[in-house]
Amino acid sequence: MIIERPSSARGRVQAGWLDSRHTFSFGGYYDPAWMGFGCLRVINEDRVDPGAGFAPHRHANMEILSYVLSGALAHEDSSGGGGVIGPRTLQWMSAGHGVEHSEYNASQTEPVHFLQIWVQSDRLNAQPAYAHSDASVERDGEFVLRASRDGARGGLPIRQDLLLYSLTLGAGVSARRTLDGGRWYWLQVAQGRVEVDGRVLEAGDALGFREESGERVLTGLGDAAADVLWFDLPAG
């Protein structure tokens, strides 16, 4: 089964300093048809005004990822994790048994645009943890592993049976991925335009694959390079 999630169908929350689009139910946006995709629970596309952000708040037993598209994001948490990350950097915080954290726009003059992603942890009440990684090794048309379970296969050591890849696609550049029918997959277009087996996807659009197998071809469209996240997830 292939599930389509157009950008225009997402929930939207505006709070003055924040413009947020929600792929799945979150906060004030609730849709029982969109509660998540397996262990993938949240993909919020956030635009935050200069100097504004999310004041300290608490989470537990959730893997929280931030992927910056433009601008700079400042993170601080009660476990000692913190720093400022820029475009194409992936930040990971495992909330574990409980952690308080804040996310602010690090600039007083420019907005920050990023994806906030939540993944259900595969263990309860672990020690909180924090790390981030840049995308300096990325090459056009090549899937780059950004996170894997406990870091065993590379990337950040997320606490879930998940492989997260990033991919850049210039115009006319293609990449291929072979699906295993026993896994689920989620393709999120962060920026730009891509074609996937005849479907044209714009920024914010997504496809989910359940019980699908065989090869999928992704091709970049338009003048600007596309930026894609590919989630390889356990079924169900």
From TrEMBL:
Matching CDD domains: cupin_Yhhw_N
Residues reported in the UniProt entry to bind Fe cation: 57, 59, 101, 103
Pfam family, one: Pirin_C_2
Family: Belongs to the pirin family.
Keyword Iron annotated: yes
InterPro entries: Pirin, Pirin_N_dom, Quercetinase_C, RmlC-like_jellyroll, RmlC_Cupin_sf
UniProt entry keywords in alphabetical sequence: Iron, Metal-binding
Cofactor note: Binds 1 Fe cation per subunit.
The protein, known as: Pirin
Residue ranges of every copy of the Pirin N-terminal domain listed in the record: 12-119
Domain Quercetin 2,3-dioxygenase C-terminal cupin stretches: 147-233
CC cofactor: Fe cation
A GO MF term: metal ion binding
Gene3D superfamilies in UniProt: Jelly Rolls
